[in-house]
Write a structure and sequence with these properties.
Number of helices: 3
Order of helices and strands: EEEEHEEHH
Helix content: 40-55%
Radius of gyration: 39 Å
Strand order of the largest sheet: 1-2-3-4
Number of strands: 6
Structural class: alpha+beta
């Protein structure tokens, strides 16, 4: 039997017969001892869902009204635009190339003194 989009069926739970309501996907949503109790549960759930939707709609309308009230009292602010010439803040990027070992090296790294390794210090 189908009632308000839910399919009713009976199920044995031990020695007890339990009535279940499944949604269109086939998942069990409600269980009750009798078919009339199951109908009451479904009616109550649908009524509760309707009340929640109405409450949400009322809350949204109240928020919109409060926003409109705030907009009506707020003074319009006009900001003056100050025109300035742009200042160049970027610097030229150093050229990067590969050295003989295949590593990337920039020209600024070439100019710096290369630190000697432990073995180079021993040789000199």
């Amino acid at each position: 039997m189908i009632y308000k989009g839910f399919e009713f069926s009976r199920s044995l739970n031990g020695d007890d017969i339990v009535y279940i309501a499944r949604n269109p996907v086939g998942l069990v949503i409600y269980r009750a001892k009798s078919e009339s109790d199951l109908k009451k549960v479904i009616d109550n759930a649908i009524e509760e869902r309707r009340r929640r939707e109405e409450q949400v709609a009322q809350n949204l309308q109240a928020q919109e009204r409060s926003k409109n009230k705030r907009r009506g009292f707020a003074a319009k602010k006009k900001e003056e635009v100050i025109a300035q010439q742009p200042i160049e803040t970027t610097t030229a990027t150093p050229k990067i190339h590969r050295d003989s070992t295949g590593k990337f090296v920039s020209q600024s790294q070439k100019k710096e003194d290369i630190k000697k390794s432990f073995w180079d210090q021993l040789r000199s």
